[in-house]
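Recap from last week: sequence in, structure out.
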Amino acid sequence: MNITLYDYWRSSASFRVRIALYLAGLEFKTIPVDLINKENLNEEYLALNPQGLVPTLLIDDQVLTQSLAIMEYLDETGRLNILPENPVDRLRVKTLSFAIAMEIHPVCNLSVAAYAVEASDKQITMNHWMEKFVPKGLQAVEKLLAHPRTDKYCHGDQITMADICLVPQVYNANRWNIPLDDYPKIRSIVENLTVIEAFSKASPEEAQKL
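Predicted structure tokens:
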């Protein structure tokens, strides 16, 4: 089975899917899509992914887009076990995942931040934008983690989709020098996760080498 990942090394969404693929033990070919040079907007790529986003995953003769949907597909097809069967537990994992991937990430996407910088005639800087919205999002996640089911990882001692979303977001926070002192649960969970090979192997630094 041939699996191809259209990837940008620094993309949070791509980072999530790389983690998921490595956790699943799947071998895949990487095709870099340079977002800085707008390769994601060329006709060939848009024919594959009309949104012009990364990642795009070719697997099972299907073209999959959107990182959360891709992770659910890998779970539903038996390659991963990152969503609990119990509906309440499953809801909690999805809530944590969405709080990161649908709330923090879209606002802090570089294209959004860059637009804010230009629209404000550069009175808003990229750093100011990140300092405004990343802590606000992380504060909410930290509060969501103040829950009896939080343990070694976001939900118990099994890696879930929430953990796969959390590590790339913390990577971005570090990239923008956002202090993490006020988020002890987040810091503890990420420390437990980053020593796992699938997470370290999927890191942007490693992806850049491919």
